[in-house]
Design brief:
The protein has about 210 residues and is an alpha/beta fold. It is built from seven helices and seven strands; from the N terminus they run ββαβααβαββαβαα. Helix 5 links the parallel strand 6 and strand 7.
Length: about 210
């Protein structure tokens, strides 16, 4: 399994990030997110699911169902550098998969928390097809960073889902699924929002990491 590792090995915590359904681990969004997190003191480890890695050598495999990716995420946890607290997570699909293995890893002491960026609460335009059943009883400390105009879940929608009280929502004004705002509307840039996410993640991680 190929990994991209950014940040100091002396960081206070490591974040393991999986990519979204359509963009690789070295996409612009993943790279910018990693850089923002490193700037606040994290070590960041990125990896790719096999279907995405296969695209690098030809063809365009569609992503499998999230349930089919759980063992791959567990393998990435095993491959990640050790020696410091680990937060798991990812962008969109990657965060969803991480959320599905989080409680087992948390109970076993292998992960301290879960960071999801642009969680796909439902497919765009299909709010009835929720991907939230397992989130109602989630016991892992969780931070979800979501744009207020994300078509995968808006504040009005998410507010009615009855999520676990272990889940904290960080809403980014006018952000889309990649947290990108319209500067002329919001006054914010994508870099502003990524910096806000990274700073919030740092403060949250320092609070939830077990001694």
């Amino acid at each position: 399994m190929d990994l991209i590792i950014d940040g100091s090995p002396d960081a206070f915590a490591t974040i393991l990030l999986a990519h979204g359904a359509g963009a690789a681990m070295d996409s612009a969004t993943m790279t910018s997110l990693s850089a923002a997190l490193v700037a606040t003191g994290f070590q960041v480890v990125r990896f790719e699911f096999a279907y995405m890695a296969a695209r690098r050598t030809g063809g365009r495999k569609p992503p499998p169902r999230a349930e089919k990716l759980l063992d791959e995420y567990r393998a990435a946890v095993a491959a990640a550098p050790t020696g410091r607290p680990l937060v798991i997570g990812g962008k969109s699909l990657g965060g969803r998969v991480a959320s599905m293995v989080a409680d087992d890893l948390f109970v076993a002491g292998h992960a301290e928390g879960l960071l999801c960026v642009g969680y796909p609460f439902h497919p765009p335009g299909q709010p009835e097809k929720l991907r939230t059943a397992h989130l109602a009883a989630l016991s892992t400390p969780t931070l979800v960073a979501q744009g207020t105009r994300d078509p995968f879940g808006t504040p009005a929608e998410v507010g009615g889902y009855g999520l676990s009280d272990r889940i904290e929502m960080l809403w980014l004004e006018d952000g889309d699924h990649d947290l990108k705002p319209r500067k002329t509307v919001s006054g914010f840039t994508h870099a502003d929002h990524l910096r806000t996410v990274a700073e919030a993640a740092r403060d949250w991680a320092r609070r939830i990491i077990r001694g």
